Amino acid sequence: MTEIIKDLRPRVEKKISAMADARSRTTLSFYRYVKIPDPVEFRQRLLTKFTELGCFGRIYVAKEGINAQMNVPTDNWDQFDSFVQAQAELKNIPYKIAVAEGNLISFYKLTIKIKEKIVADGLDDAAFDVTDTGAYLTAKEMNEYVNDPEAIVVDMRNAYESEVGHFKGAIKPDVDTFREELKIVPEMLKIHKNKKIALYCTGGIRCEKASAWLKHNGFKNVHHLKGGVIDYKHQVEKDKLENNFLGTNFVFDARLGERVGEEIISHCHLCNEAKSDTHYHCQNQICHVLYLGCDDCVKQKQGYCRTWCLLTDKLPTKFKKLFARYYNRYFRAAQFRKARLRQSA
After folding, report:
1. pLDDT (tens digit, 9 = 90+) per residue, 233-249?
2. Ramachandran region, residue 107 (left: φ > 0; alpha: ψ -120 to 50; beta: rest)
3. How far apart are CA 72 and CA 41, in angstroms?
4. By CB atoms within 10 Å of each CB, which of 37, 182, 200, 252 scores lowest?
5. Do the beta carbons of residue 188 and residue 175 sit within 8 Å?
6. Cα separations in angstroms, 268 against 95, 159, 291, 297
7. Where would I find the beta strands (DSSP E) of the chain?
8. Which one is the CATH code of 125-239: 3.40.50.12780, 1.10.630.10, 3.40.250.10, 3.40.50.1360?
9. What pLDDT is recorded for position 332?
10. 125-239 and 11-114 share a CATH fold
């Protein structure tokens, strides 16, 4: 098998190169819990073909399966699909196609990493039956749960995701990681143990594990939205259903969001006044905090989250490196909050 030489170009150079590629791209995600005895060989197989086809994305491979978020040159879609479906581990795997491509390319490079798990959940899979998942819900059935006052709808995403978009009336745990959420949700829902529960997430993968975890913790009537918010949006449009999702669906690529509902339900983190559901990363790489910004604040602060970040980012490189070392040693929190400017619920 041909060995792929790692692209060692700087991130900025890779981004400029990707943006110069004018080909139309299709953004998608897919996942599957499936036994992969040799993740190294499987990774190389994917890396060789996806590189040949000009695909970009972030893919995690583990002995327990695959979790992929990527884009494919649209002209190469048929070749991509034929290859994926020809792999024994991936045969008949469903794709979740992005709601909208937007003005940004979703990914600028191809990264395939071997992990212990395809989603970091902090659970001991040997301690419970991970295959005993909740039943799937269609978009129509999800709407019935949302509109049923006796049903419980739970957002199994992080707080910075639910802040910009969520289902009407959903319970939204104030957490920054899925690992944190799995720790607290059984206790949060204890008073609702005998009610019917619907879980949802971006594309469905987190809910597979979460529904099994809740059932292990004694919850009997647990369901989850098939295909997550991404497929919900497609089903709503296809079947002309009521849209009960408010705002934007956060996505983990350069776009950082897909419009699902027309409402803007969140506010700028910098002024806490103007409505905004557009995410940015602070341009100071020492900080790199994820924040919501309105047009005026982003322009005023030149893409930084605060004046301090703007000023320190202008330091000469050697001083900036010294400062970064000092900051990381004495000031960075042990549990880095990805969206620490977000107002807690």
Report:
1. 999 999 999 999 999 99
2. beta
3. 22
4. 37
5. no
6. 33, 15, 8, 8
7. 25-33, 56-62, 65-73, 96-97, 110-114, 135-137, 152-155, 165-167, 197-200, 222-225, 245-249, 258-259, 279-281, 290-292
8. 3.40.250.10
9. 64
10. no
Residue of 201, 297, 305, 309 marked catalytic:
201
Q: Is 201 a catalytic residue?
A: yes
* Domain layout of the chain by residue ranges: 11-114, 125-239, 266-345
Instruction: Answer yes or no: are the C-beta atoms of 228 and 211 closer than 8 Å.
Output: no
Burial status of residue 83 (CB atoms within 10 A of its CB: 0-12, 13-18, 19 or more): middle
Which amino acid belongs to residue 334? Answer: A
For the whole model, what pTM was predicted? 0.88
| Closest among 247, 286, 54, 77 to 160, alpha carbons compared | 247
Task: Tell me the pLDDT of the chain averaged across its residues.
Answer: 91
Q: What is the mean pLDDT of residues 37-66?
A: 97
